[in-house]
Fold:
Amino acid sequence: MKTILLGAVAYDPKVVGIWDIIRDYANENGFKMDYVLFSNYERQVDSLLKGHIDIAWNTNTAWIKTLYATNNKAKALVMRDTDINFTTKFVAHKQSGIKSVSDLKGKIFGLGSLDSAQAAIMGLYYLEQAKLSLKEVSSFVKPQADETNIIRFNSDMGKHGDTGRSEFDILEAIRKGELNAGSIGSSTYVRIMAEGSYPEIESFYTSPGYCHCNFSVLPDFDEDVAREFSSMLLSQNEQKNRPEIAKMMSMEGLNEWVKVGENELAGYKLIYKAMQEQNLLENKL
Amino acid sequence: MHQHSIIMGNIPLGKFFFLRLENAFLLAEKGDIFELLSDYDNLENDLLSWCNFKGEKFLEKTKINNSFAYKMLKNSSTKFHAFDPKLSIAPLENGLSARGAKLENASPHYHFNLSVKDEIWSDNVSKIYQESKSSQWNASTDIAWHDIPKYNPSLEFAIAQIMTYLVENEFSALYIPSKFLPTISPFYHEVPLLLSSVIGDEARHIEVFIKRANATGLGLQYSTLTTQQSLYTLYKEQDYLKSSFLLHIMGEGTFMDLLSFLENYAQDEPTKNLLRLARKDEGRHVAYGMGHVKSAISNNPKRIELLKDAVFRRKHYLDELSGESSLLLESLALFAGGGDSASNFSFGFEAVEDLKQKMEKNRTKRLVECGIDEDLAHDMSKSHTPNFM
Structure:
């Protein structure tokens, strides 16, 4: 068997530690694998499409770009349990009086990085579903009473929201009173609630669940290798008592690996639709 | 499966709320059900998100009178487990916790070299530790330093020379257990605690012997090659059982006879007192070593071969070097005789010869007590280093 080359995006230095553990585990268990790190998901998707890498650890946005580029034939193998039922949360200051999406009329709303499903793509999608009159602006100007001004925080573009930086930009702007509300992902929301780092902020809307990352491959990826790769990862679920596996799972934010099935794939449908509406399907380098 | 209630009342979502929730799930077993009671009726979305990230399951919300019950399932694996306290090998996951604690999964493995009970244990370990706590003394305040008289220069030198020798021997007794201490699994926590007290005792002895050397006005004198070579063979021993045997039984056992001899011939009360106190401490160290070796031998009599080998190899090595420390022997004879006149010295020299015989006899007795047959015990005793330690 040839050595399978896996790509991941280096959104943080800790990524090296995570993939070292997974690579070593794979090789110890007879699955020959190495990894390369990219600085952004567009380059990773391009490399997958060109066959420079065999498997890509993709965000939902990167997966959908891959799907679009392969006429919807690319395959997703495995994901984290925490990639299922991911949600977008709309948050506001507890004393803002904003209790539902309809209260956003006449308010300034923050969206995170353009390429982040949780902080921007799905946030915008659900704002539009609510039939608000949205107006993209570039400074904190007070909107008309029947309009909602949208401000984007395009930080760390290319990382598809992995760094969470744009979500913290939104939280800071709400804290300062520059924004009335904003869109963040459920992972950041759970983290700030548990840490108590923004006690003045609460969530007034939770989107329906959708899926986040997965291991994506091209349509012609060898099925036996796909099966071996999936079994290798899934076997780690029984190895959680090994310190390095527990460490990797905690760093990568999962409780267990899950095989991608029809239900999981359905969790990407609305993101696909939202990306189509927002003209984001094409993988632009 | 257990049912748990978490009464949150009016605690709002936030750090404290999640701390309680997190800990409740942390300590529960997989499959346990939680009913979280809150005054707030809008927590389901946030609890659902929390459960998703933690690998738990949110089940349902129901209204009970004026409050709301949020039902959740512990779906993630059980995180803590207890170990059988009777285990004869410390569990790898035990890490730095003491026996009896429940350990969280995936704790780092320390790989303590000494994690087999049989290799370190002595049944009297707790008893000796208790005695140690009630026998502590202070080398500064418990010795009447000002009552030490001045002696003639040759006796003062003998005292300073003996103290110099005692200090280096006590350092070996301080460093050897220190070397092994951090390699013992805390699963058998009684042993590291006892060794800590041994180390404390030896530090006090070093302090008191340096102070006594200084009280002669001469300070520390000559450290001889013979003593250093003998202690070096003891120090470099890597096996704990052999080391414990050589140090506590052969060395400190012999040392007790030496301290008793010195106490007997010391001419002033403060010096007698400090020697007596040091000997009492050494008695506990010998008792641990005896208990340890005795139990190791009774569990596996073949270990006698190991101990025999340790003694004879050490003798063989030392035989190639020098023999007795002439400086020490002369000082001991002077000390016992009380001066350097011919008659004093000849009396003292006889006393030292008697001491050596007594040491050999007592060593044999201790070895027999440990379970070694008399002939071998006698041979081993005779092969002990002429440095005493």
Q: What stands out?
A: The longest strand of chain A covers residues 4-9. Chain A has a mean pLDDT of 96. Residues 194 and 266 of chain A are 30 Å apart (CA to CA).
